[in-house]
Amino acid sequence: MTLRLTNTLTRRTEVFQPLVPGEVSIYCCGVTVYDLCHLGHARSYIVWDVLRRYLIWQQYRVTFVQNFTDIDDKILRRAAAEGRSMEEVSESNIQAFREDMKALNILPPDQSPRATQCLDGIRSMIAELEAAGAAYSADGDVYFAVMGRPDYGKLSGRSLSEQQEGASGRLHSDEESRKRHPFDFALWKGVKPGEPSFPSPWGQGRPGWHIECSAMVRQELGTTIDIHLGGSDLIFPHHENEIAQSEAANGEPLARYWLHNGMVNVDGEKMSKSLGNFTTIRALLASGISAMTLRLFVLQAHYRKPLDFSRDALDAAATGWQGLNEALGLGLSTTFTAALGWANVAASAQPAPGHDVGLEPSREAFVGALDDDLNTSAALAVLFDLARPLRALARRLERGSEASGEDRALQGRWQLLTELSGVLGLELELSSSSPSETSAGPDPAQIQALISERLAARQEKRYPDADAIRDRLRSDGIELIDRPDGSTEWIHRPQSGGPPRG
Ligand SMILES: [Zn+2]
Questions:
Q1: In this structure, which residues have their CB less than 5 angstroms from ion ligand 1?
Q2: 115 CA to middle of ligand 1, Å?
Q3: What is the spatial distance between Cα 12 and Cα 491, in angstroms, rounded to a whole number?
């Protein structure tokens, strides 16, 4: 495998080699939980989800850690405005975050540390920095001394002298006046009236933002990790400061590869909460944009480039996804698999026995695309090529054509499409007429009972009985979808008999 990734630290595209062969440690900066997530977060976490899925698919043991910042001025302001506690605001937004990520089919992190739960690690790292002369306390605050780090600025390409010039003439707050250098930053902030605080050797207070990531990386993954992820808006100062803290405390490099995703633009402006032009993930999904459409939209652009958001672009992505979805449904719809003689395809979810050498170029093109600094748009092109004959077949079968021997041989193609789509986190989406929405439809409990009966029949190898149940449901307009995990879902098609359209 020759995965190449663009490393912000070296400004080069480099061959990826993990520190320990076969294992990859990844830290991804998470959200400050004061509000719902917007499309910018969706973009970031979808592309890193693809990186993670790709490494797992390549047989790496991946450990993925992503934090929650649950102490912050913005959370405190939100709590005051809503008359809630900091914990209540954090907790509800953490729950919402998890729901949003699940809706987008983003794998949950292996560990999700929260700042309030890592205070011991944070305090001990600050104490180490102070003992090493890399930090100093002033009036209950503790600051990191950037002048002690000659390589400060190596990630962002800024130099300390430039920064000093840039800072002259700035208005000085209380905090600024306590600093020895304008770019020193708070590791610990002394308590302010009415704010939650925690004990420390420097008095009551709370940690600064940057230190939590340094402490969590060390706690969860060790002193040097393979890959550190985040949005390009975090390069300076956040990631620069993470490097300064961790490397001053540990005497070792923090991360070997620094990857940054581009921003999402709306009308040429960066989409972020502070600009107010954000569209929340749940608002987008509620507006009828499917999760897989959103994934495809995000993956059509290279992760490092800006992503231009518009309704037209989303509509185009929806059309693209419809085609892929139609092809993915071919091997899962019981109507089609019966017509094609593809029994038990879904149950195995493994590549078909008898490797189809004709498909090797597609597999290689897909791997080559993702190896090339995660060129997801080229990887998608491979999926579209694989899907084309499958879509055509689905349409022919839908019109009532008999399946030919050549059609039956497309099973390996469908399996490869399903496998590679899964690497991008793209999975069959049932149509919008989900069971819960078809209130006028058949009785769901009765259908579930028949599905259970069919499952039992299949387990007892009474296949004619199982098929009879399937056919009976189909004549009532109920289409069964056998999922690879062995579960069966259903959709209701009032016009009766028509297999699923994407
Ligand atoms: Zn961070």
A1: 29, 213
A2: 11
A3: 49
